[in-house]
UniProtKB/TrEMBL annotation:
This is NAD(P)-dependent oxidoreductase. Belongs to the short-chain dehydrogenases/reductases (SDR) family. It comes from the Bacteria. It holds the Pfam family adh_short_C2. Gene3D superfamilies: NAD(P)-binding Rossmann-like Domain. Transmembrane segments: none annotated. Keywords: Oxidoreductase.
């Protein structure tokens, strides 16, 4: 396994420790996935160190609150797409020559692509782009036996929430996720099995689809 991370060295090392405790190899790569050259380096580094690639999971993402489109900085809009969307394009483009029949790409989207919260217009736009990217790329490569799917989580307790929503207004974290039918936010451990399933041959007849671990919210997407 190779893990690309921005600057969270402590978290990355802990992830590596957990992977290696299961008897598997883990190669860490530090850098900014919004940069095309770094994305290409990540793929080359992975192939060189691990001998190839079978599954690409695109998970890089950021979000920032903006309650008024007329006050949303142009640079924030560009940065949102660079991190959330462009990174997926760069990595998939670089990885595809190394993928073959039975391999897969899994893109992390969001429930916000469907519900469009008013305070996250730019973030929601990137997640909508990811859904369309997933569908079109699946149609392009499924004939080669390569599957492309997306995961669109609902509210989940990750460090992103207090760092963005909480940083804007700590009250926004009060009752976070309680509006889901299950009445709570999810945990990252509840999403992991979804990615494992889509990466496995148990999902061999699934491509171009989006799985919705979101606490029971019906979004018809």
């Amino acid at each position: 396994m190779a893990i690309a991370y921005l600057s969270e060295t402590e978290d990355a090392n802990e992830a590596k420790r957990l992977v290696e405790a299961e008897g598997r190899r883990c190669h860490l790569i530090e850098g900014d996935l919004s940069d095309a050259n770094f994305c290409r380096f990540c793929i080359d580094e992975t192939v060189d160190n691990l001998g190839g690639i079978n599954v690409l999971i695109n998970n890089a993402g950021t979000q920032w609150v903006s309650e008024d489109l007329t006050e949303l900085p142009d640079e924030q809009w560009r940065r949102m797409f660079e991190v959330n969307m462009h990174s997926q394009f760069y990595l998939a483009k670089a990885a595809l020559p190394h993928l073959s029949e039975g391999d897969s790409i899994i893109n992390n989207a969001s429930i916000n692509a469907y519900v469009g919260p008013e305070i996250l217009v730019d973030y929601s736009a990137t997640k909508g782009a990811i859904i369309s990217f997933t569908r079109s790329l699946s149609n392009q490569v499924v004939g080669r036996g390569i599957r492309v799917n997306a995961v669109a989580p609902g509210p989940v307790w990750t460090p992103l929430q207090p760092a963005t929503l909480g940083a804007h207004d700590s009250q926004w974290l009060e009752g976070f996720g309680e509006d889901t039918p299950m009445g709570r936010a999810g945990q990252p451990s509840e999403l992991g099995p979804v990615f494992v399933f889509l990466a496995s041959q148990d999902a061999s007849f699934i491509s171009g689809q989006t799985i919705h671990p979101n606490g029971g919210t019906i979004i018809n997407g």
